[in-house]
Each structure stands twice: as structure tokens, then as C-alpha cells.
Amino acid sequence: MRFISAFSSALALTALVGLPARADDKAAEALAATRAALGGQKVEDVRTLSARGDFRRMMGEREMNGEVTVELMAPDRLKRTEEMGIPGGPNFSRTVALNGGEFWEDVTNRGGGMTRFGGPGGPGGQGPSEADRERFRQMQQRRLEGDLRRYLLSWLARTDTPATYVAEAEADDGRADVIEVKPEGGTAMRLFLDQRTHLPLMLTYEGVQPRFNMRRGAPGAAGGPGPQAAPSAGAPQSSPAGAAPDETRRRPEPPQQVTFEIRYEDYKSVNGVMLPHLMTQSVNGKPTEEWTISEYKVNPTFKPDTFTKK
Questions:
Q1: Quick one: what percent of the chain has pLDDT higher than 70?
Q2: What CATH number does the domain located at 5-244+252-298 have?
Q3: DSSP characters for 234-303?
Q4: Other C-beta atoms lying within 10 Å of the C-beta of residue 246
Q5: By mean pLDDT, which of 162-166, 221-225, 299-303 is the weakest?
Q6: Mean pLDDT value across residues 99-106
Q7: 271 close to 50: Cβ distance less than 8 angstroms
Q8: Which of 104, 116, 217, 296 could cross-link to 270 by cystine, CB 3.0-4.6 Å?
């Protein structure tokens, strides 16, 4: 069953309004049915989980391909490692991780240009200030904390925040229960659960449109090749190497709020736990990423330093 963007956001939603107790009870029942469908006690017993597979991602007009590995330890540890590249461009590895309340990032470039996640540096192509770096680090940490909540909710039907039943969604080929989870200080998520199989179909949430920028330059020079995390989404573009600052500087653009949709398909049993082997993401209804998961490990034993920056 597929729920397209227009359907998920507007059509045939029968909302429960003014019935918070009933809505909470119905959400709890829906999540309990989902945990049973995902594996019952086996899914309850999951403490660690890893997933690995190939992805395709659209970054503007470019397509990026690579492999991503997610390692998760409930309730507060997550590491995501991406090995990726752009045809005719750089190849690099990027790791972001949460270790309890600690966030860290590591990027290794293997030539071809500079890769920035978010917005680029300061005026005239200068690097970001320490304050800019800290703001961007905090933004990255919040985003990764959201990813951890979404993995736990969609893969294991697990949340430490009460859920509310929002609506019943209807399409030509079936119906879905829609529940909402809003963590304190976090972004609200809506999870669509197939009424027939009780498996998660889709998750939606609001967020800031990520930006990805690349430029080339001489090694070792200001603006030369080398990965760099930029301070914030919507910051001005930096100058290419050798260009005068006033030739390329742009006015800052405000962050763009968008709707993310993640769909879950191709469920298979892994050690008694039903897990999706195809995940696709859309932003404002436009497909942006596809992740084909080739391998899960349920309750793997991680090394003690798995979530520690080396």
C-alpha cells in the first residue's frame, strides 16, 4: 500500500478532536498492535541494531551514490556512517554520532573538492567563526537526535513520549491509523500504520531543508579541498578560490521549512523481527533519497568504543 504526498497531507483524514483520553488510548492500542506485528517479545528484546545498504540521493541537480551504515543502541546512542561520492566529483566518508548527550562528527575527503553540509563560511570565503561552528554543531546534534527517535519509532514502535491518535487515513487500497508523537523540545512526528498488517507505512515530520555546497580550490589554501561543516542552513555562499569576495557574496537566505516523508517497504523477518528493507524519502512531495538495506543485525555486540570519537 502506498500513501502519496497529497494523500498523506490532506485527503480523507478523519480527525479525533476534543477526545484526548480516547485518542491517547487508541494510539497506545495501535502501537501495541504494531509491536506485536513487528515481532512481539522479540522486538521488545532489541537493545542494539545495525543496518547497512546502498543509497541514492539527489543533491540539487546532482545524484550522489554510496553506502550507509546505521548502528543504534537504545535509548541514546546512534552512529551513522556514509561512504559516498558524486560522479566527476569528490569521494568521502562522513560519520556522525550520538554517545549519550555527546555529539561528534568526522569527515574524510578523498579528493576532488570541498564538501560542506549546511551553509558555507563567512564573508569573502573566510571560514566560519567559532560561534557559527557551535550553532551548526547544535543544529546537527538536534537533527541526529531526531533521527534516533524516528528509527526507534518506525523500526521498533518505541517512544518515551505519549502518542496521540490523530486520524484515520484512507486510500483506494486500504486504511492507516495515524498517530502523532511530539518529544519535549523536539519535532512532532506522524506515523502511518497499516490497519490490516499493523506495520509502519510512512512517517512525516517538519524540518529545515538541508543544504549541500561544493567548491574547488588549491590544496592548503583558504577554500581549498577538504571537508568542512558549515555554520547554518541558509548562510551565504563562500567565494571560489581566487575570486574577489564582492564578486560572489550573496545575501543570506532564510532557512526553508519543509515536510519530510519517509516510506517503509519490503518488510522481511530478521531473527524474528520484521524490518523494512527499502526506505524512500521525499521533501515537499519530491523524492530525494532511496536506501536499499541489504543487511540488518539484531542485537549485535558493539565494541566498547563504537560510539566514541577515535
A1: 72
A2: 2.50.20
A3: TPPPPPPTTS-HHHH--PPPPPPEEEEEEEEEEEEEETTEEEEEEEEEEETTEEEEEEEEEEEEES----
A4: 9
A5: 221-225
A6: 94
A7: no
A8: 296
Question: Does position 196 have pLDDT exceeding 80, yes or no?
Answer: yes
Identify the residue whose cell numbers are 484512507: 170
Q: Does the CA dihedral 170-174-177-182 come out positive or negative?
A: negative
Cβ-Cβ contacts under 8 Å for 101 (sequence gap 6 or more): 76
**Tens-digit pLDDT profile for residues 163-183:** 999 999 987 778 999 999 999
Comparison of pLDDT for 57 and 16, the residue scoring more:
57
Instruction: Enter the C-alpha cell of residue 272.
Output: 524474528
Using a cut of 0.90, tell me whether the model's pTM lies above it: no
Domain range summary for the chain, segments of one domain joined by +: 5-244+252-298
Report the alpha-carbon distance of residue 187 to residue 208 in Å, rounded. Answer: 11
Residue showing cell 531526531: 146
Residue type, 121: G
Amino acid in the structure at residue 14? T
Residue 20: which pLDDT band, with cuts at 50, 70 and 90? low
- Residues, the chain: 310
Handedness of CA 112, 250, 107, 77 (dihedral sign): negative
3-class state of residue 143 by DSSP: helix
C-alpha 135, offset from chain centre: 19
Assess whether pLDDT exceeds 90 at residue 152: yes
The count of other CB atoms within 10 Å of the CB of residue 94 is 20
- Between CA 139 and CA 149, with CA 145 as vertex, the angle to 5 degrees is 145
Q: Cis before residue 75, ω within 30 degrees of 0? A: yes
Cis peptide before 128 (omega within 30 of 0): no
235 grid coordinates: 548562510
d(CA 181, CA 200): 14
